[in-house]
Amino acid sequence: MTAKQRKGNSRNIIREQKQVWLRVVAALGFVFLCQSVFAQQARETFGKNRIQYKQFEWQYLTSENFDVYYYDNRRRVATEAIQYLEGEFDRITDLIGYPPYLKTKVFLYNSVTDLQQSNVGLNHTEFNVGGETEFIKPYVEIAHPGTVDQFKEQLIYKMTELMVNEMMFGGSLKDMFQNAVLLNLPEWFIRGASSYVSKGWNAEMDDYIRQLVRTKKINKSLKLTGVEAELVGQSMWNYIVEKYGKSSISNILNYTRVIRNEQKSVLITLGISFKQLVNDWKAYYSQMEEKASQSYIAPQDSSRVSGRHKKSVIFTTVKLSPDGNNIAYAENDRGRFVVKIKSLKNGKEITILTSGNKVFRQDVDHNVPLISWADENTLGVIGVKQGEYVFWLYDLTTRSKLPRELDRFSNIRSFDFSGNGRLAILSADYEGQNDLFLISSRRDRTRRLTNDLYDDFDPSFIPNSNTVVFSSNRTTDTTNTIIKGIKDIPNNYNLYAFDLDTTTNVVHRLTNTLSKDYYPLALDNQNIFYLSDQRGIVNIFKYDRSTGIYSQVTNYNSSIKEYDLNFDTRSLALVMDKNLKEDIFLVDPFNLDRQVFTPPTRRKEVQQAKAITERRKQEAPQKGISIKELINSRLRERADTIPKEEPEPIKVDTLQPRMTADSVDTDNYVFEDEVVKAPEPQPDSLSAKSDEIEVEIKVDETVNTEDYVFEDEAARVSQPSETFLNRYMKARETTRIKGPFPYEPKFTYENLITNFVVDPLRGFSVRLETQMNDMLENYRFFGGIQTAFDWKSGDIYGEIQYLPHRVDYSARIDRKVIFWDGYYNDQKYSWQKVEVGASLPLTVRTRLTLKPFFGYTRYVDRGNRVAPGTQEFRASEQQYYAGSRMELVYDNSLTTGLNTIEGTRGKISLLHYEGLGDKTASFSQVSLDFRHYQKIYKEIVFAMRGFAGSFFGNSRKYYVLGGMDNWFGNSINQSGTNNPLAVVKPPDPPPGQQPVPEKFNDNLIFTEFATSLRGFNYSTQYGSSVAIANAELRVPLIRALSGGPITSNFFRNMQLTAFYDIGTSWTGKPPINSNTSTQTRVVEGKPFKAEIRDFLNPWLYSYGFGFRSMMLGYYMKLDLAWPVENYQVKDPRIFVTLGFDF
Hints:
There is one protein chain. 20% of the residues lie in helices and 36% in strands. It is of the alpha+beta class. The chain has five domains: 1-34; 185-294, no CATH class; 300-407 and 565-587, no CATH class; 416-555 and 590-680, Neuraminidase, CATH 2.120.10; 805-1138, membrane protein fhac: a member of the omp85/tpsb transporter family (Porin). The strands form ten sheets. It has an 18-stranded antiparallel β-sheet that branches. It is elongated. The model is unreliable at 1-44, 637-663 and 673-720 (pLDDT under 50).
């Protein structure tokens, strides 16, 4: 090629690039002027599954602000929830400064396991490219966590999160459209606000933020996502409240809603820049960490027992064997759990149990699996399998597992074996109430020990006795107390002892603090070790029953999450965070008599000050309230905590045979079936040593004869500090609750999508799509219409899905129209199809789908488009088909950001079309699509894709290779004898005869475009088979370099890529053979026909680099590719496309 020719080609390329950019700018301008949002992402062909192991018969209760849905025998739990929510409604709305427009609908699940069967959010697109305007709906799902304390926390968190999201992204339809484009809030902002309102300044957040300071990672903390972003946001909102007051929350949220920028909102409301706020926030917690580091220590690295593991792994339990030779521990990685046993002598590790499934965008129960040693050779494991709790006994000698179902319980929090291993005591949830249960380890026998709304968990046997010690938030010494609601149940936990030898339902208080004392382990009948956050950081404490004195044993700088002590070998195993990663540590030997003292953390000081202030307010004389009202209110409080006369036994108990002895023989224990009436409760005291609580009503007996006012005429004078809200709350004594009513599915709009599509055959098109579903998303409908700008070609489709059961069903209709320019005549091709389907989820990642269908094609000749009447019409043709599509889909991928994916996914498809009435029209197709996304460093990902497919049968169709999806300014190769996209000139008729009608292109409807092969036109190669591979390195440049938050949507989502594409298409033998369609061409002539074999490279490939980011609601991709054909590198070409992935 001469220099002049190269110069001319360069000019053509530049001219072509200018035309492409003009088209892009025009399209984006149109989007901006219409004030609409468009998306380019096609409907997801992969996707995960939800497996329904049980059916839910929903009912609901309704009140002024909430509808609470429940199933099974959980009406009492629903009533408690709706009362608690109504009681907190005004406080929350006043705190965030926003009341919801509609009544909130709350769906209560019995456990996280049940919640994981829900279809809600299954097809939710977490990272929208634009175009999808999602309607904020007042629905929340809550799984009962098994304790009242956590249940109340979850109710507030979910309600606050919904209100904040509705506040930011809801409102009118216009607001939803605008917020979808203009409002891009960081993850810490919304999740952190919800977490702070529900949890306040808790130990988990305090621990995490101190570790961020300690590891010097606090400077980049505002970039974090997920739970880490929530903890950072919680700490930020906590600092704002501590420094500027609670009113700052509503001020910042409301200004952010108006101006759609959280940093400017901070400047307006607090009077300081966001940068200054971040610096002050860092300094605030840095000072706390500096003070704490003077009194607390970190565990030694040499004591770490756990090996290398993912950051997402949580160690749920750790247990030392009774002989001290082994350590057992359980790992939970997003729902997939593993139980391992490691020898402390030789370090050998074995896996004894694996179960569960990793879940995506769902709650995970990090309490399972639970483990406990029955003896030195038997390990008990409690986990979840197919939606139910299972109890395994693993024998180390025989390597065998003995399973037993525990399907009576919704949540199991902890368990422990008796000294001989024949009995086990459980802390479990039955019908929404957490209590203690005694079970036989070998037989299906159960006895209920406690029966009230108080939480009782972490039970353990005191050695050589029939007494168990446990943690509880109860305020009475009886085990069957009636409580009207959950609002007044305290959040602090103390230790209690319960003697199984007695026939009375009385427990004895051991500790009495304002902190959380839990996980007791008894050395003997007098000395009990336990975990407590008395100093602000959870450490080990020791309690002496003989003196009533407790002492601190450890002073680690991070809270202990799990621990176990072997008193014979004096070994301590514990789970805690170090350097922001959870690990198992073993301290051997451990000094059981060690005593340390640490000052309380700042969080604990504030917490204690608030508790003392609140207590003083309650103890202060109440002005304006008569003596009669005071006495009546105290009597009502006392009546709320009176014991039941006859506690109702658990319905599932198998209490046979009867037992009359007062003692418990754990060697030959027989479960009772009679329930002893509870005695009248004895008054308790507030001392740590005593086990009685005294309740007194003190009334001032001094009578002022000068200004005495009779009780009936007492003036109701309000306190000056009492607000209108407080008076209003006191006036609302009860919440009116109606129901229950049966759940009835009602369809509501899920989203609205308006987007542009660049179709290779129909050009620039507009698509309008919407989705509707019921609240539980068990019934879905989506439909749409797509039309080209010539209003001649387009699609219309609709699908309904039925998803409440294990097998998912669907029905779909499609109509596809292509208006094609023939050589002379205009031709109309249409395809109409009716399809039904059934999909069986094999696991949460794998499903098998079968979709039989019926359809027909119709080809119509519309006549000569230039000179009507000069060309013969071809009669319309119609062909009917029946067939089926079978797919096996695997998806273990995780979307972490725009065009940022990790994991693996793939699909195998088999499709058959059977020509009805014409066997020669039948054909089949098989294809494989495999993709893997490997994380390299932080958010840098190496993405790989392989695709292979083949048509076969009597009327096999074609793949056309080259180009990219949604390619602006695309070009199609229409030359070639067998090119399915070629426009063939009809033969000229002999003189004096009528013109030959132009043939229809039978391949047009079913031709499949094989992309992406950058640098080449559509249909550069074609054949009945295709193979293509792509490799792409994706680097989010700004996120990788920036240490702080990125406000610009453009820079936050910007990626630089380097890619390599390779592919080939053929008919007949694959290209590994020299005698293939890609290397053989036929030259016809008269009177001979020649077959010429070209020894050329059948593979097309290209390489280059690209740029991706968001622009005005579009995810734009710009690629510069150098195509290589037959080993010759051609001039680079620029591709501008829309959409994600390859």
